[in-house]
Amino acid sequence: MYFGTMRLKARAELHRGMFTRHDNPRPCVWQDYSPSRHDAVYCNVLSHLETLDDLLTRGTWCDDITLHREFRDDDDCMRLFRYYGLVFLGFDQCIADLRTLVTVATGSKKQQKLDARIESYMGFINSV
Fold first, then answer.
1. Is 25 strand, coil or helix?
2. Integer Cα distance of 54 and 16 in angstroms
3. Which of 2, 8, 14, 114 is the residue whose CA sits 20 to 30 A from 91?
4. Which SS3 state, helix, strand or coil, does residue 115 take?
5. What is the percent of the chain with per-residue pLDDT over 70, rounded to a whole number?
6. 0.70 exceeded by the pTM?
7. What pLDDT score was predicted for residue 55?
8. Which stretches of the chain are DSSP H helices?
């Protein structure tokens, strides 16, 4: 399977979660499009999601790479590693902002944890 196929599938999933059926960005909908309810953390989430969308849209420089189950030490693997490093950075920022939103929404003074799978993924990103 080629990386390009996976990139396009990932972009479609991101769009599905990022926009409503009417193509409105969800963070804007959460604020009811009201300037008086403007909260920077929502705009940060939207900005980070747009960054991920840009990476998935413009990531065609990796599309010719064939994805293998085994690790091979070659240029293709290095290009994919660099690409995923950029994606991980954007994803990490999205999750950090979502943690802040959950903390504020619950009125907690302590940073809230998200779903265990997401926390595990964050641990992986931070260790890489």
1. strand
2. 15
3. 2
4. coil
5. 91
6. no
7. 85
8. 3-18, 26-30, 40-57, 75-106, 116-127
